Amino acid sequence: MSDISRRKFLQIAGGAALGTLTAQMWLGQLKPAQAVGKSVSRTTGSFRRAIPSVCLQCPANCSILGFLEDGILRKIEGNPLDPNSHGKLCAKGLAGINHAYSPDRLLFPIKRVGARGEGKWKRITWPEAINELENRLQAIRNQGKPEEFHFIAGLLEGVSGLTGRFLQAYGTPSVTAEMDLYQSNKKAAQQVTWGVDTEIPNVANSRFILNFGANPYEFHPMFIPLAQRLKQAQLKGAKLVTFDPRLSFTAAQSNIWLQPNPGTDAVVALAMANVIMKQGLANSEFLDRWTNYSSEKLARHLEQYTPQSAEIISGIPAIEIVDLAVELASSNSSIVIAGDGVSQHSNGVQNERAIALLNAVIGNIDSPGGVCLPRRYEIMQPEPQPPKLTFKDSFLNLTGNINPDPKVSLLLTYMANPVYSSPVPNEITQSLKDERRVPYFVAMDTYLTETAMLADMVLPAATYLESYNLQSPPAYDLVPFINLMQPVIPLQGESLSGGELFLELGKRMGGDVAKYFAFSSVEDYWKTIAGTFPGLIKDGGWDALKAKGVWSDWGATPVFYSYKKQGFNTPSGKYEIYSQTLEKQQLAALPAYTPLPSAPGKEFQLITFQFNTHTYGRTAPCMWLSEITHTNPVWINKGTAGSLGIHNGDQVRLTSAAGVIVVKAMVTESVKPGVLAIGSCVGHWGSGRIAQGKAYESENPNTKLLWWEEHGNGVHPHHIIPWSKDPIAGGQGWKDTLVSISKV
Predict the structure, then answer these.
(1) Which of 261, 510, 624, 658 has the fewest Cβ atoms nearer than 10 Å?
(2) 675-697 mean pLDDT
(3) pLDDT tens digits for range 472-490
(4) DSSP letter string, 331-355
(5) Whole-angstrom Cα distance, residue 276 to residue 280?
(6) Which residue, among 522, 710, 714, has the nearest Cα to 611 in the 3D structure?
(7) Domains, the chain
């Protein structure tokens, strides 16, 4: 159903992100008068209809164009009006068409007729399904126990829009998002430091880029926007230095690649800060005026972190630490960036805070080429607004990890797959099978996922290509904008979007809930919100936004050093090196290095990573992507493998405190000795037959041509990853697992 042949897609998609980042790419800001984009039918020569929308194949939310011919989606491209992506799109975005027309999609409501997880279902109608859900929600609320309704949002959906509006109006605080497992450590560290939960690296204007554990050329929450600007900086001569135990795509594109021991980034950053302070290279004006900790006190705190002690802990030579620290502080427009390799540890918050401290020491905060505060519009809820609630974690309770006896009367997951996305999936599976712990479970999803297979009732969810949303991603050119997700194709089968479900439930709940849902449709709701932006109204309003997909104050230019006018959104109003928030919680107020736990007999530290062609487990049902990436051998250093008698392609057994998996070995020089690395996007046992690597007959002839069926669909490493939480934010330590390895 696409103009792109499978062979051509395979040629371009494996390096799609990098392939777009050539010296010829244009990175100027587009004006609204420019054409949205064109595509011509290869059979008729006529122009296809283009509908702007937003991609939801990763968290970056790039604007897209869906091209229709005879009412069928034939092609997806990037929208050139998007200020972040500039019309570029990665392989995952191109393959969104696979979601729209997948033969594996769930297209009508079903209800179990056997035991949970037995796989016996009957088809039901939407009226039956929504009546069942409404009755249970009414009963819980009538008992005055709204907190017993637990909700889990998917990795990419979150709890915004009509979803969040319903949860607030209903009154349940028992809400969580799967993404918290991956990003909560980073967000918490950013929040306590300068009052926002994310940062914008203005790398396009940087000359020296020190990268701790980020991988923009392969996988990043803002993948294409950041990768483009990083490449732009490098093409202009910027130096890139990457710390990563694994030779990631980004490490391979760096001037220098250094391999620290996993989870020791903080001690390296703190030692660098110490060097800069001792050599008089720190930006004392910023430290003394705009932080809450004087340069004098900071220098004393940092004295314990010498380059020599950091070398012993991290494995990075002291001379490298000193030289890079001096170069960082001496260069114009230098910046320190950090990624999952820093924050996805049980000491992740402190690792991330150490990086933030290093940026403060050089003073390149909210400045050209520095680390900047995010610029985005606030998407306000229409009046009347439901009461504000603080959502609390309901997710880990299912494992008994926090509360051994959580009170759950009804669990609803929306596009969430916690059985697959969590550590030790068997624990989640057993919790969901236990009807005493979870009396009733409803899953709403596009596929019969590993989690939905355990539900009492499964509702067919629309894809993002059939749904509405309005959002303002953090602007990488530092001028805020909004983009509109709107249906590109009609709803497939009997599927519904989450917005449609919660709008209907809100109306049905009646009383003090229904008053917040006086909208004629989901489109009416978003149109009401769009009407709160005066600039958008001036430029044509809702109709113009639907036609172009993107709106911004196109004539605006970035304004740096915003904190000089309004300060920082922290208790002190300053950049908090000493966190008052953490001090009140009796946690370490100053950035510090905290060692990871060790385990006798477990010789190797296993780190996980994400492939450039997948987003966690969400994209495996896309045939084009699974054809590229469907297996995940474990990376082992060549010297280490030789000492163990392990050869490339051997089957090896990895054993941790949580369990055992058997996987193929990939012997390589591209991972640090003592460290093993494995991708964690494959190995499905649900989510449809494509995700499982199974060929089958369908109306799409390609489903019987899965040549990779004989190779298997990989191994899911979460089976051997135990819960390992950061004590400050509770984020999972995905890269902390200690294992032993042996040849099978």
Answers:
(1) 510
(2) 96
(3) 999 999 999 999 999 999 9
(4) STTEEEEE-HHHHSSTTHHHHHHHH
(5) 6
(6) 714
(7) 6-101+541-552 (2.20.25.90), 104-182+384-461+496-530 (3.40.50.740), 201-371 (3.40.228.10), 604-743 (2.40.40.20)
